[in-house]
Amino acid sequence: MTHLNPGGTEAGPTAPALPEPRTAAPAPDASDLQVAAARTEMVARSEEAGDLHPGPVRDALLALPRETLMPQAYVRRSAPDEPPRWELLDWSRPDDREELLVLLHSGDSVSIQHEGEPILGRVPGVRSGGSMTAMSSTMGMTADLLQRLDLRRGQRVLDVGTGAGVTAAVASFICGHDGVVTLDIDRHVSEAARSRLMALGCRPAVVTGDGLGGWPELGPYDRIFVSFAVPWIPPALVAQLAPGGRALMTLGTSSPSWPGLAVISRAPTGVAEAELVAVEFGHRGGAGFDRLFLSAAFRNRITAFEGGRTRRSRLEPPADADRGMWLALDHLHPGLVRDFSAEDLTIGAPRCGSWVRALRVGHRRWEVTSFGPRDIWAEIHDVAGRWRAAGSPHTYRLEIDADGVQRVTSRCGALSWTLTDASHTGTGVTGELDPLLEKGDSHAC
């Protein structure tokens, strides 16, 4: 485990001027203007999409030189269905700069580490196989969550899952770096983030450790931000939340298709309350969080399949916007993954090989083809009926009892489930995740 960044406790300005380097900068040249224009366009796109609004988060993102935090990043040179082949681009190489400029300001996630490698001092070039083990999340999701945090000057902030350091930099800009702690399980990620944040003039405490345990040494915290998905709320993080504080984290199952956003708050009296909001996008799973995926071979079998059980149905499947229903389905009938690239509604259960494909063939008429031991179509409508009877909730209560049991419940109590550590059961069913990114009857209320 590494120690605190020596600069993390030094006296300094409350909020650093983020874009200013540590030495006097030369007058901007054409390249500097191009970078500033790309950053402005990225922020404008987030505003147009409704993910970003005027305020301190927008100001910080507009000022943040992403090329300083991510001077190297990976692009995939192989097709999605081919063995992965990655190329590491480097900002210092003129031939790479144009492509890297576009990548860093595309708004998409940016991969910065391959197979747990050291990040500082890497040689650019091609890597084959393996997977990306650290990244910067998509701009839209990052902006939206940071705004939900309601960061303010003087707050103490715990950023769990440092990645490229974007969240730590924004929190330092808004709150003042002396109150910011950023924590990552990988020392290579921590070392790189520390070096690059210092190059920006930011001095948060950069530490290495298990994010599920938080960092109590410098707590409690007014804001806690977790940048990876968890199967339930880590009790240590709740314990480190200060009165009046707020914590945000993606809560999900082994499926990447239907995430939820856990919002935890502690009242001034000390009582912790939480809710689970169905959202379209969420963070990817952290270390040890096995996630299901639909392989190319599985998807091809569904596309080419002839035979199986085909029936006509007048049951309308829930709309994509009914995220509260899909979130409930994910927990009540776990193991399902949606193929969002398919034209038809296509959902598979990779552990047992079951799948369903539903094609609209007329007004309230669907042709449903299914295969395998699970009747996924029936599972969908079972949960849809229970969800509608519960008032079609989009947000659920998240209750944690004295024994640590965590239960998700609709406001009226008609629809509920208990959170379990299903992602850590050692199923061995792992692989690339969806890009983010890379979403019986009960008594009526």
Summarize the structure.
The chain is an alpha+beta fold and 445 residues long. Helices cover 26% and strands 25% of the residues.
Structure description:
Belongs to the methyltransferase superfamily. L-isoaspartyl/D-aspartyl protein methyltransferase family. Pfam families: PCMT. It comes from Streptomyces chengmaiensis. With 445 residues, this protein is of the alpha+beta class. The chain has a domain of 94 residues: TATA-Binding Protein, CATH 3.30.310. Helix content is 26%, strand content 25%. The longest helix is centred in the first third of the chain and has 19 residues.
CATH architecture of one domain: 2-Layer Sandwich
Strand content: 15-25%
Secondary structure tally: strands? 20
Outline = globular
User: What's the pLDDT, averaged over the residues?
Assistant: 87
- Give start-end ranges of low-pLDDT stretches: 1-16, 19-28, 423-445
> What is the CATH level 1 assignment of one domain?
Alpha Beta
| Distance between the ends | 51 Å
Tally of alpha and pi helices = 11
Main sheet strand line-up: 8-7-6-9-10-11-12-18-19-20
Task: State the major sheet.
Answer: 10 strands, mixed
Compute the CA-based radius of gyration: 23 Å
State the share of residues found in helices, binned by percent: 25-40%
Class inferred from helices and paired strands: alpha+beta
CATH topology of one domain: TATA-Binding Protein
